[in-house]
Amino acid sequence: MNPRIRRLVLAYSARSRRRKADRIVELMHRIGARRILLVGGMASGTEPNEGIVERIVGAHAVEVVSINLYDPGPQPWPYVVADGCLMPFQDRSFDLVVSNAVIEHVGDETAQREFVREHLRVGHAWVMTTPNRWFPVESHTSMLFRHWSPRWRGERTEFTRLLSRREFKAVLPPGAALIGRPWQPTFLGHSSLVQAKDQPPM
């Protein structure tokens, strides 16, 4: 990718992530969430705009715990190495469970439904985001259009099932709120306990 275009794409992606984080923080304050579980949440990564959501959300929580399938290295909060589809926590252990752009990595539709069920089990409330598979910019790599290629997706095995708005809604529980239009870069789903008013796009 042309360096100038890449800088613009990264700047757009960072802005989108900050807006997403601000929305999650607003929902945290609305329900008085103090103990937060970040599922798959890392404070940094290999891409320059990774960790933005997690750092902002973590800064507004009283207590943060993170769970990741792999050891993420040094983090500013305690973390547990475990599967997000089978979390080692008691029911309702957290005020809010947050996963930012993780569900598209966990496996097929059955695995994604298990991932959602675990959010509902361990949290009093939950917030989950996923990138729109039909948006031109792939949010993890900041590449244009490549994720529309079956061959590219086949080579990037970490993206097990990128989701459209319809597909995301289908794996969420009945009554879940879903923010994001079919043409927007990100979808945000959350439990009815954190029902949000209409807000501008992310």
Describe, in plain words, how this protein is organized in 3D.
It contains 5 helices and 9 strands, in the order αβαβββαβββααββ. With 202 residues, it is α/β, with parallel strands linked by helices. α1 (3-31) packs parallel to α2 (52-59).
> What strand order characterises the main sheet?
3-2-1-4-5-9-8
| Sequence of secondary-structure elements | HEHEEEHEEEHHEE
CATH fold assignment: Rossmann fold
Structural class: alpha/beta
What is the CATH-assigned architecture? 3-Layer(aba) Sandwich
Mean pLDDT: 85
Count every helix, treating DSSP H or I runs of 4 or more residues as helices. 5
CATH C-level name: Alpha Beta
Rounded to an integer, what's the Rg over CA atoms?
16 Å
Beginning-to-end CA distance, first to last residue? 25 Å
Total strands: 9
Characterize the overall form.
globular
Which properties best describe this structure?
5 helices, two-stranded antiparallel ribbon, alpha/beta, 202 residues, Rossmann fold, globular, seven-stranded mixed beta sheet, disordered C terminus, 32% helix
